[in-house]
Write a structure and sequence with these properties.
Order of helices and strands: HEEEEEEEE
Strand content: 15-25%
CATH class: Alpha Beta
Number of strands: 8
Helix content: 25-40%
Strand order of the largest sheet: 3-2-1-5
CATH superfamily: minor pseudopilin epsh domain
CATH topology: minor pseudopilin epsh fold
Structural class: alpha+beta
Number of helices: 1
Low-confidence stretches: none
Distance between the termini: 60 Å
Shape: elongated
CATH architecture: 3-Layer(bab) Sandwich
Radius of gyration: 19 Å
């Protein structure tokens, strides 16, 4: 009985820190997925002479209901060959990659909207890239929060919570 009591106390003490650990893991998983997608999109844009777009997956897709605005990328994203060069992924255009974001992670684009167009040098054509990734219903000051930023030169860096949001 004493051993069971001690075990219960230890579990009660470890539970809250385990939740933070799980939230941090989900955010890091989403951050690495976003980073690898940006690298893929850049290399494909260079290879294909531009005509690559990254677009958020719309709300209410595959049960995801948290991406209500244009800047909310919580449901994930697709990378496509933008054959008509309009900066969005149409149904008829080839999909190069689809990423469904992990659940319980809020992914918000800091500048811009629902799609990203890359030019022939693999750089963003338009508003610079910045994303904030935080556990669901938490603030950017959460220890597991991260930011993903792409500079005008194409360098992708992951920033800690205290540096969110990306600036320029």
């Amino acid at each position: 009985m004493v051993a069971v009591s001690i075990m219960a106390i230890l579990i009660a003490l470890a539970g809250p820190s385990f939740i933070v650990l799980m939230e941090t893991w989900r955010v890091r998983n989403a951050t690495e997925s976003l980073r690898s997608s940006l690298i893929l999109a850049r290399s494909e844009a260079i290879k294909r002479g531009g005509r690559i777009a990254i677009q958020k997956i719309p709300n209410n897709t595959n049960g995801c209901t948290s991406a209500t605005g244009n800047r909310d990328w919580d449901c994930g994203w697709i990378i496509c060959q933008d054959t008509n060069n309009n900066g969005t992924c149409n149904a008829s255009e080839p999909v190069l990659q689809r990423v469904d974001a992990p659940t319980k992670v809020q992914i918000t684009r800091t500048g811009g909207g629902a799609s990203i167009k890359l030019n022939r040098w693999g750089l963003v054509d338009g508003t610079w890239l910045g994303f904030s990734l935080v556990p669901l219903d938490k603030s950017s000051s959460h220890p597991g929060a991260r930011g993903a930023c792409m500079s005008s030169g194409g360098r992708i860096r992951i920033i800690p919570p205290e540096a969110i949001p990306c600036t320029g």
